[in-house]
Design goal:
Putative stress response protein YsnF; 16% strand; 206 residues; SH3 type barrels; mainly beta
Length: 206
Amino acid sequence: MNSKIDWNNVIKKEARGANGEDLGEVQEVSNGYVFVQKGFLNKQKFFIPQDKVESFDDNILRFNISKEEISNNYQRDIYPESYAHSETDKTSTIAEPEKVTIPVTEEKLDITKRAEGRHASHVKESKKETRTVEVPVVHEEISVERGRPKGNQTVSSQKPISSRQEIEIRLKQEEIKVSKNPYVREEIVIKKKPLRETRQLTEKAS
């Protein structure tokens, strides 16, 4: 054992094996043993005899045996049976092992759906168009024809006309009158129905 080492200074310093293996951190030196612990969750505890220490450079405490040999011979959860804690030993450089609790958190996605209303409008408006329709109409005209009297009658009791005589004849003519009457040509039915679709939502969960 190296007698030049100040054992009070090795607490909480790094410990390494003969081949430079990482052994963890020095927790306590007492009654000939160096208590070294590695890891936080899966802890490895080593109780290595002080005479296995090779050197200390104020930062790293080195042992003269490998990590494999230390694991096989000195890894355990409590001190060796030969060591008994003394309540009256006030000079022992004891450091209580630290308990570190690391919470592991995860985010979960909370997806809710809510219905949003919107207005859909359909505009009905009139459209003007011009149509041309041919309609036959009838009207009367005057025609004058001359011919022999019927039955070869040559004698008449009527005297010849000595003055101007106006004969009035009523003529008929068809006029076109246009009226517009609405009628139902066709019906348009507007329906609304639900449509299902699948949307992809991507959100990073830490």
